[in-house]
Structure of M-phase phosphoprotein 6:
Amino acid sequence: MSDPKKDGKKASSRLLGMKFMQRSMEKEMQEQLEKERKRVISEAEWVLDTKEIKAEKPKIQIEYQPSFLPFAVDTTAGRRSFNSFNKSVEAKVDEDAKSQRLAREEKIENANKLSDKEFGEQMQTIRSVSKKSKKRKSDKDGDASTKKSKVIGFMKPE
């Protein structure tokens, strides 16, 4: 059979039952578990070659939406006066505000102006539409005098 020297002697059950033997067996088991855990971690670890891949910075696009309400007070640079302390500075600020207001009003007025040709074209279209509506009204009035119109109560819209 097998050689007893190669197999070695095995410890008896009484010897294995002793505390110091159990501790040594637990240490061996812990070492094996630790090796297995390290092997699993090393296998699960991923390594990326970042030298080959160059990460591009994402292009961020910022979209600004205009304000729906105009700012009531524009900020102005320059000197200020407090409690009517410097009359000349206050007079200049008043003049600047007045000129800005006039410029805004002129801009609005120019935007609303119509040229003579545009005004004439608009008037012609208005006249032609009004003439057509007068003809329709006169046709309806003639028909209405011959027929009595029925008095209808509430009519449900479709």
